[in-house]
Amino acid sequence: MPRIKLPIIVEGRYDKSAILGIFSATVITTDGFGIFNSREKQALIKKIGKDGIILLTDSDGGGRQIRSFVSGLIPKEKIYQVYIPRIEGKEKRKTHAGKEGVLGVEGVGGDVLRRLLMPFSADTCEIKRGSITKTDLFNLGLTGKDNSTALRDSVALALDLPEGMSAKAFLMALNIVTDKDELLEILNKVT
After folding, report:
1. pTM for this structure?
2. How many angstroms separate the CA atoms of 4 and 26, rounded?
3. Residues 6+ apart with CB under 8 A from 40
4. What is the C-alpha to C-alpha distance for residues 91 and 93, in angstroms, rounded to an integer?
5. Is the pLDDT of residue 159 over 70?
């Protein structure tokens, strides 16, 4: 079983179980929105985040709120923002789909989780961050233009990232999952 170097922050225990079923890792749950009121959990995340964390929440509105809150607890350079693709469906254990009708971390499946988390495994020499900048996003029309949001969403879909990310979140995600050359290739395909 591959070992993940950094602690992983997820929303709930089923997300934790999904990851621990395929990786050896330290996985901390936010207990959903419970993180907002739990000083103990906040302190724990701050403490383990000193050397870096992987933040992996659902791609729905609740996941974005939790991601934003946790991102405020730790310096941004210590957070690896990992995003699951926005896939319609419902988790097997639930009788109804969630409010937005998309799968969460627990439901996307082992292949998706492997692809997202394998770059952080102990077998990988080092965790790399890309070199895409805010200026690159602007020059490529991904920010600052009338159609920038739609263009970002098209690129996000091509990279299996969720749609609707802010420019800042999009930039962080790009620098984890791709590089400038691949971004240019994708832009050529979607425009």
Report:
1. 0.70
2. 8
3. none
4. 6
5. yes
> Contact, 191 vs 145, CB < 8 A?
no
Report the alpha-carbon distance of residue 137 to residue 141 in Å, rounded. 6
Q: Are 25 and 50 in contact (CB under 8 A)?
A: no
Are 8 and 25 in contact, with CB atoms under 8 Å apart?
A: yes
Report the 10 Å Cβ neighbour count for 122.
Answer: 11
Residue linked to tokens 């469906």: 89
Pick from 13-27, 76-90, 132-146, 170-184: least confident:
170-184
Residues of the chain with CATH 3.40.1360.10: 8-120
Name every residue whose Cβ is closer than 8 Å to that of residue 54 and which is 6 or more positions away in sequence.
4, 6, 7, 8, 9, 80, 82, 117, 120
**Does the structural domain 8-120 have CATH classification 3.40.1360.10?**
yes
Which amino acid is present at 130?
G
* C-alpha 154: how far from chain center: 17
Which tens digit of pLDDT belongs to each residue from 101-146? 788 898 898 999 999 999 888 765 455 556 899 999 999 999 999 9
Q: What is the CA radius of gyration of the chain?
A: 16
CB 96 within 8 A of CB 19: no
